[in-house]
Amino acid sequence: xxxxxxxxxxxxxxxxxxxxxxxxxxLYGWLVxxxxxxxxxxxxxxxxxxxxxxxxxxxxxxxxIALVISGLYNVLTGPARPTLYHIxxxxxxxxxxxxxxxxxxxxxxxxxxxxxxxxxTAISGMIIVLISAYLRRIL
Length: 139
What we know:
This protein has four helices and no strands. The protein has 139 residues and is mainly alpha-helical.
């Protein structure tokens, strides 16, 4: 196996693990954490939300950096692609910007809209994964 093949595999892995971290964490926060936290008093819920946001933020930022680096690498080193690919890639990138922005905002302190933000991040992320699956088919 050549070094370029090893780098291709590592970049693909980095991309997938970063997506899993970002979208998986958002799904967990939206579907599990926010529902479980309703059993707590509002003060405790807010404090716990701030604490989980504090711990999730470095993961979010790391995943975003890894996605940008690996995504650029994958696009720049890939084969020529048809026009439809580029159109869908543009949509995917716009959704990714939404996910990045809202994921960062969802981790800020005293955020009363955290549940809604996590839901938006998770839903947009799942749409990105769907588009990505289709893009792999039209290569």
